[in-house]
From TrEMBL:
EC number: 4.2.1.136, 5.1.99.6
Positions contributing to K(+) binding: 55, 120, 156
Reactions it catalyzes: (6S)-NADPHX + ADP = AMP + phosphate + NADPH + H(+); (6S)-NADHX + ADP = AMP + phosphate + NADH + H(+); (6R)-NADHX = (6S)-NADHX; (6R)-NADPHX = (6S)-NADPHX
Function: Catalyzes the dehydration of the S-form of NAD(P)HX at the expense of ADP, which is converted to AMP. Together with NAD(P)HX epimerase, which catalyzes the epimerization of the S- and R-forms, the enzyme allows the repair of both epimers of NAD(P)HX, a damaged form of NAD(P)H that is a result of enzymatic or heat-dependent hydration. Catalyzes the epimerization of the S- and R-forms of NAD(P)HX, a damaged form of NAD(P)H that is a result of enzymatic or heat-dependent hydration. This is a prerequisite for the S-specific NAD(P)H-hydrate dehydratase to allow the repair of both epimers of NAD(P)HX.
Listed CDD domains: YXKO-related
Alphabetical GO biological process terms: metabolite repair; nicotinamide nucleotide metabolic process
Lineage summary: Archaea, Methanobacteriati, Methanobacteriota, Stenosarchaea group, Halobacteria
Domain YjeF C-terminal positions: 206-476
Protein's recorded name: Bifunctional NAD(P)H-hydrate repair enzyme
Cofactor: Mg(2+); K(+)
Length: 479
């Protein structure tokens, strides 16, 4: 089962893997034509009722595959209003092929005559809200037709995210849906088949640029809507927490705080005026800081534990005491990871170990990415956390869903890149589910590293990544 949001991610991921949308439309149209052939014999009359989006485009393609039938293509609206380039190209192809195509500019004038089969290709996963005109009246006409109705992808008027309808919807006898079943179709009184349109499994398995669609920026947003991140770390090291916090800002968080021992607070602040530093009494994090941390954390959307914290027992005890009392979202990295296997917490945890750290947590690893993915998935389920295990192929799993990330390069073994990753993941965890936050964190951090190396060659340092994060996340040129 796949929602329309998820479908849009997978569709763009397929494109990133070299399978363009036009090719997918060709397969969708072919699958729709196959369904027509299963319902009606050659020579039968087929009325295709098409909208102006890609759902309609599928039917333009189907018409080309139905040369043995008496086909009429009805476009609802003017051809200039066809909303996508690939649908328009397929519309134009119909004219050249001299296939009977008509435009219906007045919804009351749609005349299907008495076809042997009607194909509903008005709206698919792009529908929002109740059917408007001319689609609403056309749906009535289709429902009144005395012949079988085949819906392309989803019956028009059914919301492909929820399976619900807000007003009138096409009553289909048969649905040919693409790639995977859509919500609600099973509850319909219709025969539903899933057409394989050639989207490779890799489009779901690997994190690709389509995943970035999960990050939409609403223009009405306020400060704080994209998250407040608190990085807890520093003591033996000062650069690490500053890197993580700046990475969180560069990847969209609105505010980044660093809670660190007071002895290093000035130094941490010195790295950037964009950071808000919260000094903690003492030279190393210890249990006496926990109440203060809990108070600060209660105002945050995500807490990142670990960067530059060190492995002093008293600091790890403090992390444990914090997590025992915390019920929010935390990213756990570096030495703080040791605490995770034994802690009793209600917090939602995203852990970012490299393979050595995974083993010290009690997990196992393997050289083959698919074997590793299986091991990581079961370990994530056992710990009840989301794991992002770093490697040439990063493995991300919440124990049920498992993804692989291939961005990044050998130049990124340099110190500090893990702190950047923890910060990016923290920013993502403010606005996304843990599995998506970790997947996009891994993708973005690696992509930033690839951009730096493409521009300058090897020799990157962690601060270079900060400058490339925006491009990795938002630049159109990233392909
Ligand atoms: N990877 C894939 O799944 C593929 C899917 N294909 C097909 O494409 C459609 C989705 O296409 P899209 O262009 O995104 O949207 P639609 O065609 O469903 O509709 C967009 C169109 O409709 C207008 N609109 C939206 N809501 C309403 C409404 N309530 N009333 C009237 N009009 C409405 C909107 O303004 C747009 O103009 C998918 O279902 C598949 O059939 C491709 O084949 C490629 C592969
Ligand atoms: K449809």
């Amino acid at each position: 089962m796949i929602s329309s949001t998820e479908m849009a991610v997978v569709d763009e991921n397929a494109e990133a893997l070299g399978v363009p949308r036009k090719q997918l439309m060709e397969s969708s149209g072919n699958a729709a034509a196959r369904a027509v052939r299963e319902i009606a014999d050659p020579g039968a009359s087929v009325a295709l009722v098409c909208g102006r989006g890609n759902n309609g485009g599928d039917a333009f393609v189907a018409a080309r595959f139905l040369s043995a039938y008496d086909v009429t293509v009805h476009l609802l609206g003017r051809p200039e209003t066809i909303s996508t380039e690939i649908a328009r190209e397929n519309w134009v192809a119909l004219e050249r092929a001299e296939i009977d195509r008509r435009t219906v500019e007045d919804s009351t004038a749609i005349d299907l005559a008495t076809p042997d089969i009607v194909v509903d290709a008005m709206l698919g996963t792009g529908v929002t809200g109740a059917l408007r005109e001319p689609e609403a009246t056309a749906a009535e006409t289709i429902n009144a037709a005395d012949c079988p109705v085949l819906a392309v992808d989803v019956p028009s008027g059914i919301d492909a995210d929820t399976g619900e309808r807000e007003g009138i919807a096409v009553e289909a006898d048969r649905v040919v849906t693409f790639h995977d079943e859509k919500p609600g179709l099973r509850d319909l009184d219709a025969d539903v088949t899933v057409g394989d349109i050639g989207i490779p499994d890799a489009a779901e398995r690997f994190v690709e640029r389509g995943d970035l669609r999960r990050l939409s920026r609403d223009s009405n947003a306020h400060k704080g809507d994209f998250g407040r991140v608190l990085v807890v770390g520093g003591g033996p090291y000062t650069g690490a927490p500053a890197l993580a916090a700046q990475a969180a800002l560069r990847s969209g968080a609105d505010l980044a705080y660093v809670a660190c021992p007071e002895t290093v607070a000035r130094e941490v602040q010195g790295y950037s005026e964009n950071l808000i530093v919260e000094p903690l009494a003492g030279e190393r994090l210890d249990s006496s800081n926990v109440q203060q941390l809990l108070a600060v954390a209660s105002r945050m959307d995500c807490v990142v534990f670990g960067p530059g914290l060190g492995d002093a027992t008293k600091s790890l005890d403090a992390v444990e005491a914090f997590l025992e009392a915390f019920a929010g979202t935390a990213v756990v990295d570096a030495d703080a990871l040791q605490v995770v296997p034994n802690v009793e917490t209600e917090a939602t945890l995203v852990c970012t170990p490299h393979q050595g750290e995974l083993e010290s947590m009690g997990g196992t690893t393997a050289a083959d990415p698919d074997d590793r993915a299986e091991l990581v998935e079961s370990f994530a389920a056992e710990l009840d956390v989301t794991l992002l295990v770093k490697g040439a192929y990063d493995v991300i799993s919440d124990g049920t869903r498992t993804r692989l990330n291939r961005t990044g390069n050998p130049g990124m073994t340099v110190g500090g890149t893990g702190d950047v990753l923890a910060g990016v993941t923290g920013a993502m965890a403010c606005v996304l589910d843990p599995i998506h936050a970790a997947a996009i964190g891994a993708y973005t951090n690696g992509r930033a590293g690839d951009i730096v190396v493409e521009d300058n060659g090897y020799g990157l340092v962690a601060t270079d990544l900060l400058g490339a994060l925006s491009a990795a996340l938002w630049s159109e040129s990233v392909a």
